[in-house]
Each structure stands twice: as structure tokens, then as C-alpha cells.
């Protein structure tokens, strides 16, 4: 069992420096996000997460969501916790005020969501999927659909889901075969099976609103023939209340490695040819709605990497402070808490530095999303959108890869106890393992980065970011405290620049070489960008220390942490330049049937 | 569910080149290990592993070992499989012929054990622990104890265990408090609790022979006051058959992340003050017996990393060959099996190259153990012992770290299916996670390497190994096919040499700096040494290709694989030189109570 306390100081610094929340409040739409409000929101979210959600995390793991003849029962306490969350008004925090949301910055929403995901990753998936549905409806739904569904989805009274995957259509969404037929009343009839549907069925809300990708019979093949439909579990009656049951059901739950309390459903639509759906957006343009759903969801899944690593880090620290074992190496003194051993310090500092770099990178991306949506200046919006687009796959993949790695370190710090389920350490490790997979595997993210994002706007956005990093490194070079960061960050961004130029310069007939370098390029990108946003915080910490404001211990530790990241974590990533640019020859030296033993 | 086939060709090449099995057969003790015999043994072991043990792997995971009032029942089929293993004469393969063993090389035994561990890691732990007990008894037991116990332990009719850990004494074995009192008849009375005892109780064998570390009441404190006792579950009667029940019991099993079919027992000794034990070796010299038990066990746990990664690799290949998804990047062609995607190729080639490097390194260590025990020349024995001692912690830690990483890659290759327990991918990932922990955590291994092993014999052994690697790299430099390996291997061994010189040169007052660099030093060591033994195989493959002997596809693929490892896996490890030698200042920048949020 592990406790959780929201890392409020670090969240606040990341919002200040990486997300630029003070700048955001100068945007009219976010003028209410004053420093006091931000503190109050973080504080209250941290309490709900720590007191209500975190204690249910182990319960959820051991009980799991239970399926019985189409009905899914959530573990004990989950309904009450969800109700508390809804009644606190948390679900609408960042959604449009037009339909009952509070319109606060997405960056702040990320900090709040981080607390839910740290406390109880499985439960936090319900609002996460709902968020995707709200985004898709907000941007692509008819006024009628918005009026009927958005208020309840935004309040959290109803939950939304995303129905994409089919057995033969995972990463290749264009291969889906779920059918939609036009009905005479302007609605559609949906028929098909979807798998891996997160919170496809549960007992937390009065209705469940499925957004389902399907194909009209006269649609073109592939991704150009996909439409998006809103398919509610209960058809709303004349008062907008859950009425007649729609022809859809949950045929079963998956038996998974982790996030046991998150029901992963097989969904059957239209077994009786009576599953009613409404078109969202235009026919055959469903991919646009899907990308709207997935884009923010990808950032939020990256955030899960941050969150689960934070939870594991807190558990590792608590254990290392308590567990007494052996004298320090080279000492004949008494046994000490293992946090005193350099081996354990390496692990804890690596966890701390990496989590804080991940958080900074993720919140920075959130800030870019906010500016892209709401900045009054069109150029600023375009720049911010470019940065958000560029960083989204990096956040998703790098943070979730690190989530796996750091939850594994927590197990290792626990020694034998780390392998025992009751310690709680295995659950974080098991839960973390889904995040590199869903919402587009990390491989898909890497291909998105080298394929689409490097080429976007002639590479303007990555060039701008790398120039910012170089300028920053130049500005702190030679500084007594921050100088060593400059050295490693310069090497890192140099490697990143070389790799990006090489990848972007590959012709289409070198597509294999590009794809071969994609994954380590994303790792290099994440490490350098994360190190950069962390170092920005270190400079701010230095400024505050010089000015005598803020908590001096926290600020001094931030500088040490950023230096540790630069000195210990950047060099192996920087060395990926060679592997990235080596080409694909050896990748294809073996025939497909020659890999087997 | 995943199938398994023993990778016989690669095992054989690793035995030939890395372990030098042909040289071993020139040692009188091993003269029977002819090439034909080796092939026959591997072939038969592979069959037993694939046909009998592998199909039980998922059964063992889902049923687990079951405790009921002190009795432990193994999952369905395990007893039959174990009997088949014993009746086949497998258990005595490498043990002394004096008590019924076959006296074959340990290196060959490793190849055979690898098949068991790949097929069914949980079941393979029973013989593994037994092996430790046999080693300890063989080297430290009285003639009487040997005569009574060794034949049955060597045949596998009885099983042996290692009882070290107590709640307050994990890595710090000197903190143990289990008591031993001298009885008038020359035996001892044991009293205390041990935890995490692998196969401490089960229904596979007629008796279980516990080797228990305990402390006499007049013993010195710490590790100098530990004695080793043989404590059988049933006291042998006058015919050497299991007689009266000894005063010990299994008080419960742990609920673990993985290896569910391996009963991890809490053992109670002497609840009724009547637990009879016999001294093994001398009083207060129990640590020597423990090190005898653990040394080979450490190599064998490293081998588990190889084995579980091999199993995961095979599953990943099979899935990637079958699963059709999307066209190749940059192509407008049809969807292809995902093994055709460069992203997946990177993962598969990384898995293949790393597993083969791990296997080569592990078998090389096995060959060194054999020469150390049996070579007629004393100088050769000493050199071999030095190499074995040096490589043992590297094998244990590097291979098990990689085992975790590569089983995680298998999950990722599976996409959504990788997170579903029925696919079998999660089990390998869960099972693999114990290996970096038990038999001395990987942190303990890293400290053993930088603390004891670098200093041993004035560093003669690491200097000799690094010189061999440099010489080899020099010899293949400029070679058309192998030249690129030389480049990366030279850089790697240069970094390794610098790091070792720096670590070995640290004074005792720089102990924190040494400990701070220990873990990445071990990673660098493992990667370079693994890459070296893999490259030796590539050179041999080239020779055989030139000579027109052997399977040309296998040999050409071996060269491609070794090149892939050099080009893709060595550079990030080489870049660890900086982090290793950076010192411990930042590790201790935070006070212990400043890590928490």
C-alpha cells in the first residue's frame, strides 16, 4: 500500500515556468486563473486525490471491475468517489463555459488530472475518455447534439467513451469494418464489434455516450471512409433523461496486466439491428473527430506516465527513508536507512529528476494548447499550435516509456518486498505498462513525430524550439551554478538538431531509414526537451533564490535536480544520434522467416 | 500462450566460441563431453523443455502454488513434469560422479538449464535451489552428510533449499537472528523465521533439505558469527529414508507479481524447540558455504534473464510474423505483417542481438567456472577463476536487467494484446521482474563488481579481459564485414577501461563516488563484454562461411546481429563513462527528508 500527496510546489513551478500560466491569465479567456485560484484549485484537487481516490487504488486492483451478463460493477467505493468528484464540479474545469464548464486553462487541468492519475489511474480513465468525447462533440457535433449531451458530459453526470479499435484494426484504424446505415429519420443504425473499449460499460453514471467510428456501405475504403457517430446507451427521452435502452451491450471484460478497476470492454452494437446513432461532423470525415478526441488524450496519457512515476517515486522515497539495511559503503558505521546509500540515491535522484522533467514538458505542452486555442494574436496561436503538435507525440511516448522504467526502479528499491503484491509496488508497475500502448502505441507516436511533425510547416516549429534551447544554453553557459547544465544541454540539442536534419532530409525512398531511427529519435527529443524545461525551472529557482523569494530548500533542490538530470540522464540519450542515423540496412538483413530460433 | 523451441544452433555456437567447449573436452574430467554428446544432450533437453515444461507455464501462472495449513500443492502437471525430469537423469548432469552425477561441464549445464528456465521459469527454480545446496554440501559438508544426502539431492529425488533472508536481514545478511543451540548428540537445535524461501515447501519430492543460516548464542556479531546448518523436513531413518517429521513448517506463501508456481515460503524453524540441524562446515564460517551456494546461483539467475528474454523474443517473432497491420511507412502498398515495419524490426533485432550477447557472456562465464575447477594447469585455473569471479556479478545483473527490458518490448510489439493476460506476454514480464532482485539485488552485484572484483588480484583479471577485447577489436579493424564492430567495440572498451581505472583509483574516502558509479559501470561492462563475446561468434561465423561449413543463413545472420548490437546497443552504453565518473556530489545534495513532495 502506498500513500500519495500531490507535489504542489513542483506542480506550481511547472505551471509558472513551463506552462507560463501568468502569461495565460493575460489572455481574456483565462483571466480568472489568478495565482490564488490556481493554488486553491491545486490544493483542493490534491486533497480529493489523496483522501478519496488514493485509498481506493489497491482495492480497485484486487477487486477489479466485474462483468455479469452485460452489467459491469465497479469496485467498492468507486461510485462514491466518482460522485464526490462530480459534485465538486471537477469534471467541467477546463470545458467551455457555454455548456457549464469553467473554462480554465488546459495546463491547469493537466495538473489537476495528474493528481487523479497518481491517486488512482484506473478511476481517472473515466473522466479522461469523457474529455475526448466532449472535445469531439464540441468541435464537430451539431447544435442539437451539443445542447442535449454536452451539459451532462461536462458535469460528469454522464460519461463518454471512444470506440475505435476492432480485432483487425488497431494501429491501422482504416481497417475497421463496423457498419452504419442511414435511417429515414436522419439517424443511423450501427452494427459491429469494438474491442478494448475503456469504460465502455460501468455503473458510475446514469448514461454512457459512445462515440463510435464506423463505415457507411457506400463509403470509400480506408481512413477516408470512416464516420463518427454518437451512440448513447440510453436514448434520451423528451426531457433529455435516459430513456429507452439502445441496442448495444458489453459482451465481456478483458483480463489485464494492470488497471484492473478500469473496465476494458468488448462492445456489441446492433445485435438486433436496432442500434441508433447520430452523425458527429460529416459523413466520411470521422477521422477529424477522432483526431480531436485523441490529440488531447495523447497528452493526457503522457501525463499518466508522469503521474504513475510520481506515485512510484513517493513510495520509493518513503520506503528508502524507513528501511534500515547495512552501513554505507566504505564505512564501518552502523546500518543506515537505505536512502543514505549512493546506489539508492542514484535511483531516487533519477526518478525525481525524470518525473520533474516529464512534468515540465507535459505542462509546457498544455500551455501551448491553451495559447493555440485562445491567444488573441493569430501568429501566436499558430506558433503555439505548432509547438503543441510537435510535443504531443513526445509527451505521450517519452513520458509513458519513463513511467514503465521508473515504476520498475521503485520495485527494485523495495528489494524482495517490491515483488510482493501487498507492498503496492507491483501495481504501479503493472498499471504503468498500458500507457505506452493505448491512444496510439509509442511506435505510432514516433512515426507521427518523424513523419508528420518534422515536416509540418517546413520544420519551422522544431527549428524554433531547438533554437530556443540553444539560446538558453548559451545564456547560462559559464554560470557558476547552472553552467554544467549548459554543457550537456548543448551537446544534447546539437545531437537532436543533427538527427532532425538527417531525418527530415531523407527522401521517400529512404523511408525505412527514417522509420528505423524514429523511436530513439523520440527518446532523444524527450530527454533534451524535458531537460530543457527542467533547466528553465532551475534558472527561475536561481532567480528566486537571488531575490530571496520562495522556499529556499525547494529552490536549491530544484537546481540540484536539474543538474543531476543534465549530467546523468542526458549523455546516454545524446549518444543515440549514431543509432538514429545509421540507416536501416541491418534492420532488414534477415528475412522475416529467419528470426525464429 | 506462447510456444517455445530451444535455440539449439545459437546455444551450440555459444558453447563452441564463448565457453570454448572443445577446449574443455581436453580437460580429463570433461573428456566425455564430445560434440556428439553435447548435441544429443541439447536436443533432448530442448524436447523435454518444449513438450513437457513449456505447456505448463501458463497453468502454473494461473493456478499458482497453493498453501493449506502448512501443506503446499503445486499446480496441475508439475509433479509429473518434475518426475520426468528426474527420471531422465537431468538433475545430476553437472554434479560429481562420486555421488551419482554425470560430471559434465557447467557450461553445458547452463545451456540445459536455459531451456528449463525459458520453458517454465517457476518450475526451474526447484532444481536451481537444489543445485546451490548440492554445491554447499559437496564443498563444506562432512562425509557422513554427503553420503546420506548427496545421492538423493543429485538425483533430484529430494530437493534442497537456501534459507538466508529474514525480515530485517535481506541484503544485509549479517543482521540475521535465527538461533542455533548445540545439542548433546552433536546436532543442533534451530529456532527462527526465514522469509522469501523459494520452494521451501512443495509436493514434488519425498524430502526437502534446508540449508539454514543461523547464529550460535556465543557467536560474534555480524557476518562472522553465522553458521550453516542442514535441516531436513523429514529426519532420515536408519535406511536413509524420510523418517520422523522435523520441527519446521511453512507458515504461508507470498502473493507475488510473478513466478506464481514457485512457492515463496515463510519458514518457521523450531516452534516446539525440536528442530534438528547438522552443521555444514565449521561454526561461524557459514558465510563460506553461503557464497558457495550463491556464486553459481548468481550465474544461473543471470541465465534466467537470458532464458525469459529468449522466450519473450520467440513470442514476439511469432506474433510479428502473423499480425498484419498497415502498409510499410512511405509505401502505398497493402498491409503487411508487422515484422516488415522498421519500428518492429528495431525491437526484434534489439531483442535478438541482446539475448545472443547475454547468452554468449553467460556461457563464457560457465566455461571459466569449468576451467577454474578442472583445468590441470594451476595458472590456468587461477586465471579462469579470476574471470569467473569478475563476470559473475555482471552476468547476474546485466542479463536480468535486460530480461526485464526485453520482456517489456515483447508486450509492446503485441500492442493492445500485450496487456491482456491470455496472450501470455504479461507473464514473462511479471516473471522476469524477480531476477534483478533475488540472489543479491543488482545493486549488490554492482557493489561487488566495483568494490571487490575490481580490486581482486590487483585488477589483473579485468585488465586481461579488456586487453583481450582491445586486441580482438584491433584484429578485426578494417575487415570488410566486421570492421564496423571494431569501431564501436573499441570505443566501448576504452570507456570501460577509463571507468575501471577511475573507480579502482578512488580512495576509501571517495567511497560514495565509487558507489555512485557502480550501477552504470556494470551496465557498461555487461554491454561491452556481451558485445565482445557476440563479436567473437561473428568472427567464427565468418570463418565458417569462408570455409563453407555450417548453415550459411544462420552464420550470415549471426554477423548481422553482432553488427547490429555494436552499432545500435553499444553507443548509449559507452556514453555512460561520464555519468559513472561524475562523482557523488549531486547524489547527496538533498537531505534524506527533502525527497518527499
Automatic annotation (TrEMBL), chains A, B:
| EC numbers | 1.3.99.41
| Domain Acyl-CoA oxidase/dehydrogenase middle per the UniProt entry, residue ranges | 162-271
Q: Which residues form the signal peptide?
A: none
| Residues in Acyl-CoA dehydrogenase/oxidase C-terminal domain copies | 284-449
Enumerate the transmembrane spans: none
Q: Which cofactor does it need?
A: FAD
Give the InterPro entries listed for this entry. Answer: Acyl-CoA_dh-like_C_dom, Acyl-CoA_Oxase/DH_mid-dom, Acyl-CoA_Oxase/DH_mid-dom_sf, AcylCo_DH-like_C, AcylCo_DH/oxidase_C, AcylCoA_DH/ox_N, AcylCoA_DH/ox_N_sf, AcylCoA_DH/oxidase_NM_dom_sf
**What does the function comment of this entry state?**
Involved in the assimilation of dimethylsulphoniopropionate (DMSP), an important compound in the fixation of carbon in marine phytoplankton, by mediating the conversion of 3-(methylthio)propanoyl-CoA (MMPA-CoA) to 3-(methylthio)acryloyl-CoA (MTA-CoA).
- Name of the protein in its database record: 3-methylmercaptopropionyl-CoA dehydrogenase
Annotated catalysed reactions: 3-(methylsulfanyl)propanoyl-CoA + oxidized [electron-transfer flavoprotein] + H(+) = 3-(methylsulfanyl)acryloyl-CoA + reduced [electron-transfer flavoprotein]
Keyword Flavoprotein assigned: yes
The answer, when asked if Transmembrane is one of the entry's keywords, is: no
Domain Acetyl-CoA dehydrogenase-like C-terminal as annotated: residue spans: 465-590
Domain named Acyl-CoA dehydrogenase/oxidase N-terminal is located at 64-157
Family note:
Belongs to the acyl-CoA dehydrogenase family.
Give an example GO molecular function.
oxidoreductase activity, acting on the CH-CH group of donors
Q: Which UniProt keywords apply?
A: FAD, Flavoprotein, Oxidoreductase
Organism per entry:
Rhodothalassium salexigens DSM 2132
Q: What class of enzyme is it?
A: oxidoreductase
Amino acid at each position: 500500500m502506498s500513500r500519495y500527496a500531490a507535489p504542489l510546489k513542483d506542480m506550481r513551478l511547472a505551471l509558472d515556468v513551463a506552462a507560463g500560466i501568468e502569461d495565460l491569465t493575460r489572455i481574456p479567456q483565462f483571466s480568472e486563473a489568478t495565482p490564488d485560484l490556481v493554488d486553491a484549485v491545486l490544493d483542493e484537487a490534491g486533497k480529493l486525490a489523496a483522501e478519496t481516490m488514493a485509498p481506493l487504488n489497491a482495492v480497485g486492483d484486487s477487486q477489479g471491475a466485474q462483468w455479469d451478463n452485460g452489467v459491469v460493477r465497479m469496485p467498492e467505493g468507486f461510485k462514491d468517489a466518482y460522485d464526490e468528484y462530480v459534485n465538486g464540479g471537477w469534471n467541467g474545469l477546463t470545458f467551455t463555459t457555454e455548456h457549464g464548464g469553467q473554462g480554465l486553462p488546459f495546463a491547469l487541468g493537466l495538473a489537476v488530472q495528474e493528481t487523479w492519475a497518481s491517486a488512482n489511474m484506473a478511476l481517472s480513465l473515466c473522466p479522461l475518455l469523457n474529455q475526448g468525447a466532449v472535445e469531439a462533440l464540441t468541435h464537430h457535433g451539431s447544435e442539437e447534439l451539443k445542447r442535449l449531451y454536452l451539459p451532462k458530459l461536462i458535469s460528469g453526470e454522464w460519461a463518454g467513451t471512444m470506440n475505435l479499435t476492432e480485432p483487425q484494426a488497431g494501429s491501422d484504424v482504416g481497417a475497421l469494418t463496423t457498419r452504419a446505415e442511414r435511417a429515414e429519420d436522419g439517424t443511423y443504425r450501427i452494427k459491429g464489434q469494438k474491442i478494448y473499449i475503456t469504460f465502455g460499460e460501468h455503473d458510475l453514471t446514469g448514461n454512457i455516450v459512445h462515440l463510435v467510428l464506423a463505415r457507411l456501405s457506400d463509403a470509400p475504403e480506408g481512413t477516408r471512409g470512416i464516420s463518427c457517430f454518437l451512440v448513447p446507451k440510453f436514448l434520451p427521452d423528451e426531457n433529455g433523461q435516459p430513456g429507452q435502452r439502445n441496442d448495444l451491450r458489453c459482451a465481456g471484460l478483458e483480463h489485464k496486466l494492470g488497471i484492473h478497476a478500469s473496465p476494458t470492454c468488448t462492445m456489441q452494437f446492433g445485435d438486433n439491428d436496432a442500434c441508433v446513432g447520430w452523425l458527429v461532423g460529416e459523413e466520411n470525415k470521422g477521422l477529424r473527430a477522432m483526431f480531436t478526441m485523441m490529440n488531447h488524450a495523447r497528452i493526457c496519457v503522457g501525463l499518466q506516465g508522469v503521474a504513475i512515476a510520481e506515485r512510484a517515486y513517493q513510495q520509493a522515497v518513503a520506503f528508502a527513508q524507513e528501511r534500515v539495511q547495512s552501513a554505507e559503503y566504505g564505512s564501518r558505521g552502523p546500518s543506515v536507512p537505505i536512502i543514505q546509500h549512493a546506489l539508492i540515491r542514484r535511483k531516487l535522484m533519477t526518478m525525481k529528476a525524470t518525473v520533474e522533467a516529464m512534468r515540465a514538458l507535459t505542462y509546457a505542452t498544455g500551455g501551448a494548447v491553451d495559447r493555440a486555442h485562445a491567444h488573441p494574436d493569430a501568429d501566436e496561436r499558430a506558433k503555439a499550435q505548432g509547438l503543441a503538435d510537435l510535443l504531443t507525440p513526445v509527451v505521450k511516448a517519452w513520458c509513458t516509456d519513463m513511467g514503465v522504467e521508473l515504476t520498475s526502479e521503485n520495485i527494485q528499491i523495495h528489494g524482495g518486498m517490491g515483488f510482493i503484491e501487498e507492498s503496492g509496488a507491483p501495481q504501479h508497475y503493472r498499471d504503468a505498462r498500458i500507457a505506452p500502448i493505448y491512444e496510439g502505441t509509442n511506435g505510432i507516436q514516433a512515426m507521427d513525430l518523424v513523419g508528420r511533425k518534422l515536416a509540418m510547416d517546413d520544420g519551422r516549429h522544431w527549428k524554433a524550439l531547438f533554437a530556443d534551447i540553444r539560446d538558453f544554453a548559451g545564456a547560462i553557459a559559464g554560470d557558476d551554478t547552472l553552467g554544467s547544465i549548459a554543457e550537456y544541454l548543448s551537446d544534447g540539442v546539437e545531437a537532436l538538431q543533427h538527427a532532425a536534419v538527417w531525418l527530415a532530409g531523407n527522401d521517400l525512398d529512404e523511408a525505412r531509414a527514417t522509420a528505423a531511427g524514429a523511436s530513439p529519435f523520440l527518446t532523444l527529443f524527450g530527454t533534451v526537451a524535458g531537460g530543457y524545461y527542467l533547466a528553465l525551472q532551475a534558472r527561475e529557482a536561481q532567480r528566486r533564490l537571488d531575490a530571496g523569494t520562495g522556499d529556499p530548500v525547494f529552490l536549491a533542490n530544484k537546481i540540484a535536480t536539474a543538474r543531476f538530470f543534465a549530467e546523468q540522464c542526458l549523455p546516454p540519450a545524446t549518444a543515440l544520434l549514431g543509432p538514429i542515423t545509421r540507416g536501416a540496412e541491418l534492420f532488414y538483413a534477415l528475412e522475416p522467416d529467419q528470426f525464429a530460433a
